Amino acid sequence: MSLSLFQSPGSIVALDDDPDYLAMLSLVAPKEWYVRFYVHAEECIRQLQLEPPLWEADAWAQQELVDNWRQTGAPLIPQILRYWSQFARRRYGLTQVCVVDYSMPSMNGLQVLSELVDWPGMRVLLTGQADEQIAVQAFNRGLIEQFIPKQATDVSKRLIDALMRLQRLASGQASQVWRGTLTPMQNALLRQPSIARAVGDLVSARWVEYVVIGVPFGVLGRDADGNVGWLQLEPSSGLEELAEMAESVGAKAEHLEAIRQGTTLIDIELGQALGRNEPAGLSPALQIGPDDTLLGAFFEISPRFTPGADGGYNQWLASQPARVIRR
């Protein structure tokens, strides 16, 4: 398992010439998902063909943050917070996954997907029993990420599970931008399957979007209501240096010992990145993975440093039209 260094909510599109089937999908799709439903292939294609420039603009916005940090030393955390606030509408509106029925009267599902050459999202094909061999061939050729038989008894669960996984993959395509902020040691740690799984589980349980960065080393995350937090990551080999930093800012002797023992972490670098004047915070350390190679600790970030609900996912979702089947 590899850890996506960037995650963001996005949208889903479903295309099927059977409006009753789309109505069923609307009922089973989680309420916190933004899903658009189409009956006509031409309209679905037209909408998705508008998106590649928006995907590219968002990728450039992220790259510019990293370039600015690299060229000027501007801290990444405040830049990411501004990005979250300013580009919510564009980011959340990007269609991450398209679900297409294979058997449709005007054109089949693979013909629809062949029209979306530049669209970078993930593709799911719904198949009838007679279409499965075609779907297998399409999967093997890399034309789709997954196919799901419509006649399967657990089709709803299989589809929801697939959409959750593929949304993460689509959003995670931006990981390479952020990998450039990691040192070789940090990158090697996060590529260990056990550590990647542990970090992924921790952040996905708290936040709907996050970014992994190397300076300082950790994960900046945001929940659906716009609350921001920080998961500080600390290699055990760096605990003595962290304790020395803590001593330089006047930490108490018992706190210095707890840092050296790996039971407590202190958020000095987070405070420096935010330009925070108050004393550094302390938080219990968590073991990341099966051994003590990497530790972590969660720290809340005061709303006065963050965009708050402005540009948050729930705020954006509430502004979107109700789910309808576009006939």
Question: What structural keywords apply?
Answer:
327 residues; 15 helices; single chain; Rossmann fold; six-stranded antiparallel β-sheet; 2 domains; 14 strands; six-stranded parallel β-sheet; alpha/beta
Describe this structure in words.
By secondary structure, the protein is α/β, with parallel strands linked by helices. The chain has two domains: 7-51 and 94-173, Response regulator (Rossmann fold); 180-305, no CATH class. It is built from 15 helices and 14 strands. The strands form three sheets. It has a six-stranded antiparallel β-sheet with strand order 1-7-8-9-13-12, sandwiched between helices. A six-stranded parallel β-sheet has the order 6-5-4-2-3-14, with helices on both faces. Strand 5, helix 7 and strand 6 form a beta-alpha-beta unit. Helix 3 packs antiparallel against helix 4 and helix 12 runs antiparallel to helix 13. The longest helix is centred in the N-terminal third of the chain and has 21 residues, at 52-72. The radius of gyration is 22 Å and the shape is elongated. The two termini are 40 Å apart.
